[in-house]
Amino acid sequence: MTNPPVCNYEGSDYQQSFWEQGGREYEDRAEAIALKRLLPKSGKLMLELGAGAGRNTPRYAGFERIVVLDYSTTQLAQAQERLGRSDKYIYVAADVYRLPFRDRLFDSATMIRVLHHMADAPKALAQIRNALQSGGVFILEFANKLNIKAILRYWLGRQTWSPFTREPVEFVALNFDFHPAAIRQWLGNLGFSIENTRTVSHFRLGFLKRTIPAAWLAALDGLFQPTGNLFQFTPSVFVRARVNSQPQPLMQVPSNVIHLFKCPDCGGNDLQEKIDHLLCPSCNSCWAVRDGIYDFREKL
Length: 300
Ligand SMILES: [Zn+2]
Prior knowledge:
This protein is α/β, with parallel strands linked by helices. The chain is about 25% helix and about 25% strand. The structure holds zinc ion.
């Protein structure tokens, strides 16, 4: 099976260099405000896609169990260090284009600062739709090509690509910005309704970040975020989308982790737990289980 290329943070110190020493306290706080307003207060089973080192994971504490998913096992090891090993967190290394979960399992999913790296966004979104129950909630953050800076640069002739057209723009290899209308169309085609949109990082400007305390700037951002329901010109946009259909009673989440999974190669639902791997009896694929991480990227 050929898949779009994956942006791999294996071995990266992204958490430290980008978030902790990168002067991004304002962005982190502004995201926390958006998430708090958009997230269901509680739930059974959350799928966090592109969790990285688990920066956002503690914000999902109202969920009984959380699948912490990333393509990079070194990022997941950092997340494990931060969150600990317990029944609450299930660490999974997998490719978003072939998710290893049974259909219609999760009541919520989030993907924050991840779509940014997707060469085939609709394909990834379809996988997520498939993992969500009827009435399930999906919180998606995307980088917005229709942002004020890009518009000004385009009008001043300093940028060749138009921020107004719907196709994604790849401004650096495997880094994409999206048009809000394209995102709405893709989600709509998959049977999601968008319930709420919040624009985030209105004040991502060096001189503001240097002169105003991050907590104040983020609080101010929080006041502006609801305007996202009217227009979107910020570099970052959050949407809460819901799988159309009558909400059904929450299904029982299987207590045995192995019953969450399907084989990403053949779709077989009857994986068997062996000492250090999972075996798919339908296609004989083996998937590694190492240091508390289920690895569905490449079969053994
Ligand atoms: Zn299989």
